[in-house]
Write a structure and sequence with these properties.
Shape: globular
CATH superfamily: Alpha/Beta hydrolase fold, catalytic domain
Distance between the termini: 29 Å
Structural class: alpha/beta
CATH architecture: 3-Layer(aba) Sandwich
Number of strands: 7
Order of helices and strands: EEHEHEHEHHHHHEHEHHH
Largest sheet: 7 strands, mixed
CATH class: Alpha Beta
Strand content: 5-15%
Number of domains: 1
Length: about 280
């Protein structure tokens, strides 16, 4: 039986503030969210962590499934004694966030889905995941970064956003090959949650880069239309890693959502919710 792993994590901001857990994408680390930590930590309790096999995190035993990553997220909330938190996930982190709210809606105070989709992989996409595993085993993570970065940022942005590109490259190259292979397999076999979206009652923000080629804006529009009351923000000039490519615009959308989400909570309620 697979057991949850307590992820390596960082906590920033006031203990009594509303907690926000950021779930990074593939094949990054918790540092993907550094710009969001800097922008939000004065007002919110920010938790970032490394998913299995990413950065210094162990891979665990045997095959990996999104289900196990949800188990790890629950273990982290329990460890931090958080009854509820806002969950913000990008790409693969969005798959985890969607399955988290499907399994544990009572633990999610607010939901932020970034550059992700609810549908499962098509057969063609699964074959591409398998090709990616073969390529990692043959050529390693540096070669994966070379191939992936133009897709993540867009070919033009790769040359115009050198700091952002190198920031993501470092995280890709820090991820273990076996961890990346396990993550690709987990994404290939994830559930199709598109028919579950209508049951989401939690306030939801969807953010997508207008130039995202991996999970295009139409994927986000379908989620927006299916989730009751969901809001969609499309960020011009951003690709798949919208929070890195356009951090100011991303942070503005996130902060507005968080202010509206929590504006009815009194200071006492905030402290109670954060420390329950």
């Amino acid at each position: 039986m697979e057991h949850p792993l307590l992820p390596s994590h960082s906590v920033h901001g006031p203990d009594a503030a509303w907690p926000i857990v950021f779930v990074h994408g593939f094949p990054f680390t918790r540092h993907q969210w550094d710009a969001q930590v800097a922008a939000l930590q004065a007002q919110y309790r920010i938790i970032t962590y490394d998913m299995r096999g990413h950065g210094p995190a162990p891979t665990g035993d045997g095959p990996l499934m999104i289900e196990f990553l949800v188990d790890d997220l629950v273990a982290l909330l329990d460890h931090l004694e958080l009854e509820q938190a806002t969950i913000c996930g990008l790409s693969m982190g969005g798959y985890v966030a969607l399955r988290m709210i499907d399994r544990h809606p009572d633990r999610v105070h607010g939901l932020v889905l970034c550059d992700t989709r609810a549908e499962a992989d098509s057969n063609e996409a699964r074959i591409k995941r398998a090709e990616g595993i073969r390529a990692i085993r043959a050529d390693g993570m540096a070669a994966l970064a070379n191939n992936l970065l133009p897709v993540l940022f867009g070919k033009q942005a790769v040359s115009s956003n050198e700091p952002g590109v190198q920031f993501i490259r470092k995280q890709i190259e820090e991820t273990r090959p076996e961890g990346a292979c396990q993550a690709l397999a987990a994404m290939a076999c994830r559930l199709d949650l598109s028919e579950r979206l209508a049951s989401i009652e939690t306030p939801t923000l969807i953010v997508v880069g207008a130039e995202d080629a991996l999970t295009p804006p139409e994927d986000s529009r379908r989620m927006r239309d299916a989730i009751p009351g969901a809001r969609l923000v499309e960020i011009p000039g951003a690709g798949h890693v919208s929070n890195v490519a356009r951090p100011d615009e991303f942070n503005e959308a996130l902060l507005q959502f968080l202010r509206e989400l929590n504006e009815e909570d009194s200071p006492g309620r905030v402290a109670e919710g954060a420390r329950a």
